Amino acid sequence: MKALLVGMGEAGSGWYRRLRSLNGDLELAVSDTNESRREQLQADGVPFYTDAREAIEQEKPDFVINVTPRHAHSAINHLAFDYKLPVLCEKPIAENYEKSMEIVKRAEEERIPFMIAENYRTFAPLRKLKQLIDEGAVGALYSLECEFFRKRQRVTLEPNDELEEVIIHHFDLLRHLSGREVGKLFAVKRHVFHIVMDLQAGIQASFRCSLHSVGRETQWPGDWRIEGEKGSLTFADGEIELTTPEGVQRWSDFSDVAVQTPVQEFLKALEEKRRGETDAKEYLKNQALAHYTRLSLKQGQQVDTSASWGYGPADIRNFLRAELKPSSSHGGQGLVESVRLYGKGDFETPLKFLYYSVLPPGTSIGYHGHRDDEEVYIILEGTGLMTMNGRDTRVGPGDVIVNKPWWKHGLLNDGNEPIKAIVFEIDKA
C-alpha cells in the first residue's frame, strides 16, 4: 500500500520517522508547503510535493495521513475525501467542533474510512488497566479520577487550547476505560483545570490538569484512581495497583501486553474492512467534550452533553397510524388485528417485542404459556376476561397485567367493544 503523509512539521517529522521504520510493503510520499523539506526527502528516495492535490494526482496513494497544523485539517480531510481516500488524521478532527461534525458527517455519508490517531489508549499499561476493568477486577464502577500535572516547556498553546491538544487524550481514556458516555459536565479553570463529570450508569468522574506545575510530574496519560464495588485500581509512575479485600496486587512489567500503534490499527482496519478503534465518528465524542467544557466555562454552570452521544433521533412509531394485520393468536377464537411496533433487534436490553393488538368482540388470544420470559398486557380500551393459570379475572382500561415466567394466560373479548392493548415481552437477562 502507498501512503501520502501530508505535513512535515514537528509532529509530521515524527510520523515520517515512524513510517519509514515500519516493516512491510508500505510505500510513502510526502506533501508539505515548505519547499526546504524537498532536499531531505529526495535524499531518502521519497517523492515530495508542495501541493497535496498534485501529490494525490501523481502518486495515487491508497490513503492519506493528515499531520498538518490544526487549522489545515479540514481542507486536507476534504481533499482526501474528494478522491475517496481513507484518512488517518492527527487530533483534533478540525479546528472546532462544528467543522469536525461536518467532516465526520461527510465521511459517514460517503462511507470513507476515517480514523483519528489517538495513541494514549495504545500504551501497554493503559491496555492492562482496561483489561482488568473489563475482567471485573473492581466490579461495577463507581468513580474515575485523573490528575495530569506537567511543567510546560516547549509546548506553546493559546488559552484553553490544552483542551484539544492535551485534555482530549484524557477524555478519550475516560470513555475508553469506563465504556460509558459523559452525560453532564461542569468545568472551572484558574491555575488548575478542574472538570467534574456524571457518566452513564451513575459513574462519577473528575479530571484535574495543569501545564504550569512544578515538582513531581505525572506521566502523559496522567495518574488514575478507579473505584468499584469490589475495590480500587490506581495507575501512577508506570505502575498499576489493585486493592481488594483479598489484598494488593501490583504490575510494573507490561511486556506481555499486546499493543499496536494507531497506524498499525488503521492498516488492519482497512484490511479487515471494519471501523478503526478510534474511528472518527466515535472520536468526535471526545471533541464534543472539549466543546462542552468551553461552554461550561463560559456559562459558569453544569451543561448537558448527551446530545453528543451520537444515538441519532428518537425512534418514534405511532400505533394509531400503523397498518394492522388480522391473524389467529395462539389458536384463539376468530382473528385478532395487530402490528409489531418493535422487534428484538430494536432494543439493547432483553425486550423481545412490542405489539399493538385489537381484539374485536368475540375474539381471543388463546390460552398459552411461555418459558423464562415475562409478558405484559396494557389494556387501553374495552373489557374482557383474562385467564391466568386457570383463574379468570375481569380486565379493563388502565389495567396492566404481568404474566410471569412459566405462567399460562389468555384473553377473551366477551364484550361489545373492541379490546385495544399494548403487549410486550421481556426475555430473561
Please describe the structure with a list of short key phrases separated by commas or semicolons.
Dihydrodipicolinate Reductase, domain 2, nine-stranded mixed sheet, 25 strands
Account of the 3D structure:
This protein has about 425 residues and is of the alpha+beta class. It folds into three domains: about 120 residues, NAD(P)-binding Rossmann-like Domain (Rossmann fold), CATH 3.40.50.720; about 180 residues, Dihydrodipicolinate Reductase, domain 2 (2-Layer Sandwich); about 100 residues, Jelly Rolls (Sandwich). The chain contains nine helices and 25 strands. The protein has a nine-stranded mixed beta sheet with strand order 14-13-12-11-7-10-9-8-15. The longest helix is centred in the last third of the chain and has 20 residues. The two termini are about 45 Å apart.
How would you state the average pLDDT, rounded?
93
Output the CATH homologous superfamily of the largest domain. Dihydrodipicolinate Reductase, domain 2
The tally of domains stands at 3
How are the strands of the largest sheet arranged? 14-13-12-11-7-10-9-8-15
Residues in helix, %: 25-40%
Number of strands: 25
How far the N terminus sits from the C terminus, by CA atoms, comes to 46 Å
Total helices: the number is: 9
Described by strand count, sense and barrel closure, the largest sheet is: 9 strands, mixed
- The CATH class of the largest domain is Alpha Beta
What's the CATH architecture name of the largest domain? 2-Layer Sandwich
By CATH, the topology of the largest domain is: Dihydrodipicolinate Reductase, domain 2
Shape: elongated
Structural class computed from helices and strand pairing: alpha+beta
Low-confidence stretches: none
Computed over alpha carbons, the radius of gyration is 29 Å
